[in-house]
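Anyone opening a protein record will find just a pair of labelled lines. The record below illustrates this layout.
***
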Amino acid sequence: MNGLTLIGIAIVVFAAAYLGYGRWLVKTWGIDPQAKTPAVEFEDGQDYSPASRFTVFSHQFSSITGAGPVTGPIIAAMFGWAPALLWLLFGGVFFGAVQDFTALYASVKNKGKSMGMLIEQYVGKTGRRLFLLFCWLFTLLVIAAFSDIIANTFNGMTKTGELNVPGAQAATISLLYIVVAMGFGQYIRKFQPSGAVKFFVALVLVALMFVVGMNFPLYLDVASWRYVVFGYCFIASVLPMWLLMEPRDYLSSFLLLGMVAGGVIGVIVANPQINMPAFVGFEVNGKPLFPILFITIACGAVSGFHSLVSSGTSSKAIANEKDMLTVGYGAMLVESLLGVVALVIACAAATDGVLPKGTPFQIFAGSISNFFNMFGLPAGLSSCFITMCVSALGMTTIDSVARIGRMSFQELFAPSEGQEASGVAGFCMNTYFSTIVTLVLAYFLCLAGYMNIWPLFGAANQLLSALVLISLAVFLRTTGRQGWMLYVPMTMMFLVTMSALVMSVWGIVNKPADQFVFMVDGLQLILALALMTLALLVVKHCGKELISGEVDECESRGCEKTA
């Protein structure tokens, strides 16, 4: 088997899914191109801000495309390339893209409400609080894991004591991205340039930032970069969307889409052979294919975190309901394609069925760099570009998660519609206080290192997808829309993730006493048990509503019922 064949299959499958299944979902549930979207109706210059289709797509794609679609498929290749490829294709089309689109659709149809507030509307107050608490704990894990990855990427020194030039160059470019993005946001808001002018200006700015970054690398240690990253999370959480996050994601999309295109074109030109077996076995190194494969490959197939972006930020920027298919369904398929590219590249770099030594990102980055070198790009520039892409994957994720974490904490204490918050609840809903609480706790988790956080993050992420899917099924049922297409995904993801969490808890509990570290193992154990308990309670409330809920209940709740 060669890489070109696998990439070709993936492109055909994803294109057919977008044009067929995606459009069928739109037709089945209905959209109204003439309707005022929440971004238009409630525009406030802060969270609600209408933007063009490509701008919102850039935000969605940049926010959801973290380390997962590269890391997961490469690790999952230990079972062989076939199981990983099948899950990326099947999961991306019928699980992940459906979840992302439905979450965006439900939010846009309900005044841009987040998943937590949607659950209150269709399930009840208790369900809302349980879900929001789960989401908030989950955002702590995401911020902690990705902040540590970014800090280590930017570290000015390698483990051998040498200068980390590509990392230092990428660090400078990343800092420029923050400042330039705010200027770019001001420029767009004041002059409202056409799409072509905006595109050209963005290309020039990206090129200039690379020139400056290549020539003025910034060398700081890991601890210093942690402070910088968390400082960035703070300003990203409190500043208006149009001022920082949307323009930054727009600029970052050039890097991420360029990386995907470079990988696809590189495979087409080189047409590498796959040097990994199609299937190794149902158990590898003591790890069973079920549920490990479905936990390892998250973002490239289905990720609960995506729904928080769809309903938390993207839904408040959609200017026309017609844009939802491209943003919700399309962005996920592009991410799934990145997962396939990563899998193909890693398996092509293998020797006699054994992957090269190094982290998944090192394997991926090395291969992509070779492709760019093959196109005539200097080694130093290609190395800096890939390192910057890696950091962009993380930076465009944690800014969204920091904002979503802040909003989840605020909504946790928010009163029901029509009531006013007072006392402690009102103080906890303060934007700055909720942001500080979220980031301080995430920082302490970050000190444990991303390798200790990642397993729990993966399981919690997939469990979140199960909770979101069952909640969205309730929304579809209550509003008189077909929801059967969510039943298999939500059931499978719940069984997979609960199995994985039970395995994780069992592994921690059975650790020898002299190897048990409370700040690492103990904290993970507490979080795992808390997430499992919250998940069971959410499923209980949503499941009861899904089974016994009637369509006419929607009217008594004042919820949106028809397209």
User: Anything to note?
Assistant: The chain has one domain: 3-53+81-267+291-350+362-557.
